[in-house]
Write a structure and sequence with these properties.
Elements (H helix, E strand, L loop, with lengths): L3 E5 L6 E5 L1 H6 L3 E3 L10 E2 L7 E3 L19 E3 L20 E3 L19 E3 L19 E3 L7
Parallel strand pairs: 2-4, 3-5, 5-6, 6-7, 7-8, 8-9
Antiparallel strand pairs: 1-2
Length: 150
């Protein structure tokens, strides 16, 4: 076992993720849940110190369950099944890097609260129009390669 445990959530269809104390103590700021077959973002218990969260290579359809992550600066959802940038992103104003390459996103949205965003990777999606980036004053890197922008 890698010290990461999954359990059903009583109050919703979501899954809850717990780490063993030793696993959390070992790397309190980083949580990697790549290639776990996840279809939704799990609720993360006792993970308020997490700064880097990796959900690469899953089947996640919606950005969710970010409310209990007050220190999150790096969110990686590369190669999932996300179709829209949900308003859940507004709950992580600390975010500096958002990796959403290789998804099914059609429109850039819900970034207005991410004032610290420095890197936004949206390559290989279905975006046809560049919009809703005006508020992102700190944005230095924007990757829109492989989209449907004309």
């Amino acid at each position: 076992s890698d010290g990461i445990y999954f359990a059903p959530c009583n109050s919703s269809p979501a899954t809850v993720v717990f780490r063993s104390n030793s696993e959390r103590t070992n790397d309190p700021e980083r949580l990697t849940l790549e290639r776990r077959g996840l279809v939704c973002c799990p609720v993360l218990k006792l993970e308020d110190r997490v700064r880097l969260l990796n959900y690469q290579n899953n089947f996640i359809e919606r950005i969710d369950a970010l409310r209990n992550l007050p220190n999150l600066i790096f969110l990686d959802l590369y190669n999932n099944c996300i179709e829209e940038m949900s308003d859940e992103l507004s709950f992580v104003p600390t975010l500096r890097v958002l990796m959403l390459g290789k998804n099914k996103i059609r429109m850039i949205s819900n970034l207005d609260k991410l004032m610290k965003l420095d890197v936004l990777d949206l390559h290989s999606n279905r975006i046809s129009k560049i919009q809703h980036l005006e508020e992102l004053k700190d944005l230095r890197v924007l990757n829109l390669a492989g989209n449907e922008i004309s």
